[in-house]
Design goal:
Length: 178
C-alpha cells in the first residue's frame, strides 16, 4: 500500500507541476475505484459513473489545494463519497425503493429459514433509520470503515460518529428485538 501512496504522491506532484500525462495515469489508477465506491453508496450504475466523472472535475479543480499529495487517495475518495451522499440525499426516495425492493424480494425466500427472516427484519429496520444512521451503518458494517475514516468521510467528529453508530445499533436492536 505504501508503494501505491508513493506512486500517487509522484503523480500528484507531477500534475501539480504541469505534467498533464500524470493526470491521465491518476485517472487510469482511480476511476474504477471511484465508480465502485459511488455505486456502493447510490446503487445505480449510471449515476455512479456520473458521480465519478463529477468527482474528477472537482479533483482537477482543487488538486492544487491538496497540501499532502500522500493523502490523494483518501482525499479523492472523500470527494466521491460526499458527492455520492449528496446524490443519495437528492434521490433518497429511490434509495428507499431499492431497500424496499430488497425486502420484498426476500419475502419470496424460505420463511422458515431463520437467517432469511432475520435478514428481512434487518432490511426493514434499516429502512426505519434516519439517513444519517443508515449511512454510518453502511460505512461501518458493509464498507468496513473505521470510526476515524467515517468521521473524515462525513466531515463529523469521531464522537459524533460513535454516537450515531450507537444510536443506530440501539434502534436496530429495538426493531429486531435482539
Amino acid at each position: 500500500m505504501k508503494s501505491d501512496k508513493h506512486i500517487d504522491y509522484n503523480l500528484v506532484e507531477a500534475y501539480q507541476s504541469g505534467d498533464s500525462k500524470a493526470l491521465v495515469t491518476l485517472v487510469k489508477r482511480w476511476h474504477l475505484v471511484f465508480c465502485e465506491k459511488a455505486f456502493w453508496i447510490v446503487k445505480d450504475s449510471d449515476l455512479s459513473k456520473d458521480i465519478a466523472q463529477d468527482s474528477w472535475q472537482t479533483i482537477i479543480n482543487k488538486i492544487n489545494t491538496l497540501r499532502d499529495p500522500h493523502s490523494f487517495g483518501s482525499w479523492a475518495i472523500r470527494i466521491v463519497c460526499n458527492k455520492s451522499f449528496d446524490a443519495l440525499s437528492k434521490n433518497n426516495n429511490e434509495f428507499r425503493k431499492h431497500i424496499e425492493l430488497q425486502y420484498e424480494q426476500s419475502t419470496f425466500e424460505d420463511m422458515h429459514d431463520e437467517r432469511t427472516h432475520l435478514k428481512k427484519q434487518l432490511l426493514k429496520a434499516i429502512l426505519n433509520l434516519s439517513e444519517q444512521h443508515q449511512i454510518v451503518i453502511r460505512l461501518f458494517y458493509m464498507e468496513a470503515y473505521s470510526l476515524k475514516e467515517i468521521s473524515k468521510t462525513l466531515n463529523i467528529s469521531v464522537g459524533t460518529t460513535k454516537s450515531r453508530l450507537f444510536h443506530a445499533r440501539e434502534k436496530l436492536k429495538q426493531e429486531i428485538k435482539i
